[in-house]
Design goal:
3 helices, rod-shaped, mainly alpha, about 0% strand, 2 domains, about 80 residues
């Protein structure tokens, strides 16, 4: 009977203290990993940033060309233009 009681106490301690601690530590570790960008994510973000900069430069060039060719276009559509 003492072996059964000892096993029951050990099982209760494991279920009440050890197992919840392991679960919490597991999710804390996953949470910390999830907050950081992977190297692949950083590389992709950098590529997207560079691409957006090129698109912005192209749009600025296109606006200058249109303004040179049709100077009144900007004044007609002034409400539609967003400054950056």
């Amino acid at each position: 009977m003492a072996t059964g009681t000892l096993l029951s106490v050990a099982l209760i301690i494991f279920l009440v203290i050890v197992l919840p601690t392991i679960i919490v530590l597991h999710f804390v570790t996953k949470w910390r990993q999830g907050r950081e960008l992977s190297r692949e994510d950083e590389r992709l973000l950098e590529e997207l940033w560079e691409f957006s900069q090129r698109i912005e430069q192209r749009l600025d060039t296109l606006e200058r060309i249109i303004d040179d060719d049709l100077p009144t276009t900007r004044s007609r559509h002034a409400g539609a233009h967003i400054e950056h």
